[in-house]
Specification:
Elements lengths: L1 E4 L9 E4 L10 H10 L8 E5 L5 H8 L4 E6 L2 H14 L5 E5 L17 E4 L7 H10 L1 H4 L3 E7 L11 E9 L2 E8 L4
Parallel strand pairs: 3-4, 3-6, 4-5, 6-7
Antiparallel strand pairs: 1-2, 7-9, 8-9
Length: about 190
């Protein structure tokens, strides 16, 4: 087993168990810290979707900083059980839910009536980011008012020639690009 530590909020320093080996690629602490400094005003009392949750680092940071509800979307059953274990260990049972779903091949969200304020999208770097972005757009009705934070490798640029997404901020950390934005109203 591996570990990562929450970098902020009331649970700063809390240890989260991560799977051994290269099964997931948890976002480095410096990137998580930067994201949550940018989002510090939006996180409290927000509803968050952590898509391609993996270790759940982004969702757990949001819970530590006061998100009212976090939905972890992950297709791997082992990772889902690890997420459940960490939720219980951290005492987040009332504010967190794990959904075992394949984002690209099913309806991934808890229901059509639950609309997030913030959506973290951090697919595996081996996955085609453009396909993920198009799939997100298929759920525009659910995600239309959400702030979307999307991480992808610098070799890909799913936002090139994308006419339905408004980029509000773009950051580069090593090989990773972070996009902060939302769907355009009339797209």
């Amino acid at each position: 087993m591996g570990y990562l530590y929450l970098v902020g909020g009331k649970d700063k320093g809390r240890k989260i168990v991560t799977p051994p080996g290269k099964k997931v690629r948890p976002m480095p602490g410096i990137m998580r810290k930067a994201i949550f400094e940018i989002l510090q005003e939006e996180i409290p009392e927000s509803v968050v979707f952590d898509i391609f949750a993996g270790s759940g680092s982004l969702g757990f940071e949001a819970l530590s900083r006061g998100a009212s509800q976090v939905y972890f979307l992950e297709k791997d059953s082992y990772l889902c059980s690890l997420l459940e274990r960490n939720i219980k260990t951290c005492g987040f049972e009332e504010r967190a839910r794990v959904l075992r779903r394949d984002f690209l091949h099913s309806f991934p969200f808890p229901s059509r009536s639950i609309k997030p304020d913030i959506v973290f999208v951090d697919p595996p770097f081996s996955m085609d980011s453009k396909s993920v972005l198009k799939k997100l757009y298929n759920f525009k009705v659910i995600l239309e008012d959400a702030l979307i934070v999307f991480r992808y490798p610098e070799e890909q640029d799913p936002f090139r020639d994308c006419d339905f997404f408004k980029i509000e901020d773009r950051r580069k950390y090593g090989r990773s690009i972070l996009i902060f934005g939302s769907f355009k109203a009339n797209s």
